[in-house]
Amino acid sequence: MTSPASRKPKSPQPKILRLSGIPASAGVAVGPAFLMDTHHVEVVKRPLKAAQVPPEIARFEEALIQTRREILDIQKKIATDLGIEHGEIFDAHLMLLEDRSLIEEVIQRLKKEKLGVEWIFSEVLKRYVRTFSRIEDEYMRERTGDLEDVGRRILRNLTGAKRASLTDIQKQAIVVAYDLSPSDTATMHRRNISGFVTDIGGRTSHTAIMAKSLEIPAVVGLEGATRQIHSGDLVIVDGTSGTVIVHPDREMVRNYEALRKKLLDLDEALLKVKNLPAETPDGRRVTLLANIELPEEIPSVIAHGAEGIGLYRTEFFYLNREDLPTEEEQYQAYRHVAKAIQPHSVIIRTIDLGGDKFISKLKIPHEMNPFLGWRGIRFSLGQPELFKMQLRAILRASVHGKIKLMYPMISGVEELRQANRLLDQARKELTQQRKKFDPDLEIGAMIEVPSAALTVDLLADEVDFFSIGTNDLIQYSLAVDRVNEKIAYLYEPAHPGVLRLIQKVIEVAHERELWVGMCGEMAGEPALALILLGMGLDSFSTSAVQVPRIKQVIRSVPTFLAKEVVKEALKMPTGRDVEAFAKARLHQLVPELGD
Ligand code: PEP
Ligand code: MG
């Protein structure tokens, strides 16, 4: 028996920390954190002996040289890839590195205070950043960001902190990152990731969309997550409410484990509608589809009872590789998807690069407003050979299943005509090569730019169907960047302006006898789906996990009731009012969906 004196003192339970962010992917995950980012570089206060001061100064100088080398490398690479003027932005970084007053201040304080250089440097840096941000001169104020960037680089070199990689994850963990790149998210399904949280991002950033597709609970836009969570900390991620709890006590863990089970049970129970048609009680048939980014998601699409793929985001095929996919490779991939989803159809969307999806191989220049820049169809029309290669691959695959083709980011008739002209050329090229394709391939346009939403009558002459991309339509019509967590509260799918646009699109498309679907995240939110159903939307495409929920809504609500909800909703002055009302009605009409 151990005597009380020899018993180890219990380490105190660290303080429970509750963080609140943007719910990105529903579900609960509990586990140890895996910190990926060194965006915030941790520095400790280390007292030094007098003899340690000169080597510490040498270490600082070495870090400055190494940082200079890194910046010159990046500058060279950018100048070669994008042109000299793009490389020039790094001149400001280099100048800051050579700022003698900053360097001298660090060295003098180091000698006087005898503390580790990373601590002294970060203190001096903070003071500089404060001073820069208060300067009246706009040019100088804008240098604050440069200063922070260079400072972070120097700190990383001093502390040896490097960005971790998803491949370093050995056992189930919750990833904590500043942000995840499309290449990170594209490999997430192969790693032991039970949940993730990021400092930045909004509900429809590619990171959030991918989390939903992979059924990984996630919270984004947590601002200080990488600062407040350390590797190994026990973390609870509640992706339904957007809450993250660090160092939870036993009772919290028990409660959240119970909630996790309840949610999984609800998912399981909802699967009972899997093989039933998406039909309202009065017999109106709706098409219920799923979105995919990677062919690996097809089994989940089928398992959740979707009747096909309403959006295949092909740009993910271009990620995580050194080269560009050839026509043959793309043909094989699209053929595989078309065959795997038989007897249903797949809507293949041509690449939508730019915005928050970039690949290094294609030299997309850095832009001030990438979401308003060289993105989607604009990029494809600017690279006709690359675009035609994808079109030929899609056309060739079309004889192996039911394929439809769709263009992203259409803003007007001219773009649509140009895209169709290139499609015609691709058809001619294939005919010359005696390669087969479906001559009746249906062509659709995404409606995600307000000018397209307002000119559906004109676009109708050029296509066979429309698909409303609300992720972008909301950001463009409300002028709210979809990935900016600071203004995420303004990103309102139920905003009266958005609802009116959607209603108009459906109405006009139907007047022109074209079917209209929705593949934005809004189509997967049960309360809003109730409104969309009442507006007469023909097809809903959402992440596979949401399919049973939306089917339950469709199967529970007769058309006349859904129309009544629309009538009331359209009278309401704010998005919040609409959302609260739709949720309350959903609760009454489809109680089995829970809270
Ligand atoms: C959309 O904008 O709603 C959409 C489905 O496309 P993405 O999210 O890929 O931009
Ligand atoms: Mg879009």
Describe this structure in words.
By secondary structure, the protein is an alpha/beta fold. The chain has helices at 53-82, 84-87, 89-97, 100-113, 117-134, 138-159, 182-186, 206-213, 225-228, 250-270, 298-303, 327-340, 377-382, 384-397, 413-432, 450-453, 456-459, 470-478, 496-511, 526-535, 547-556, 559-569, 575-589; strands spanning 17-20, 22-25, 28-35, 173-177, 193-198, 218-220, 234-238, 243-246, 287-292, 308-313, 345-349, 402-407, 442-447, 465-468, 515-518, 539-542. It contains 23 helices and 16 strands. It has an eight-stranded mixed β-sheet. Helix 14 crosses helix 15 (413-432) and helix 20 (526-535) packs across helix 22. The longest helix is centred in the first third of the chain and has 30 residues, at 53-82. The radius of gyration is 27 Å and the shape is globular. The model is unreliable at 1-6 (pLDDT under 50). Bound molecules: phosphoenolpyruvate and magnesium ion (MG). Phosphoenolpyruvate binds at residues 204, 209, 311, 313, 352, 448, 469-472, 519-520. Magnesium ion (MG) binds at residues 408, 448, 469, 471-472.
Helix and strand arrangement:
Blueprint: E1 17-20, E2 22-25, E3 28-35, H1 53-82, H2 84-87, H3 89-97, H4 100-113, H5 117-134, H6 138-159, E4 173-177, H7 182-186, E5 193-198, H8 206-213, E6 218-220, H9 225-228, E7 234-238, E8 243-246, H10 250-270, E9 287-292, H11 298-303, E10 308-313, H12 327-340, E11 345-349, H13 377-382, H14 384-397, E12 402-407, H15 413-432, E13 442-447, H16 450-453, H17 456-459, E14 465-468, H18 470-478, H19 496-511, E15 515-518, H20 526-535, E16 539-542, H21 547-556, H22 559-569, H23 575-589
Bound molecules: phosphoenolpyruvate (PEP) and magnesium ion.
Residues 408, 448, 469, 471-472 line the site of magnesium ion (MG).
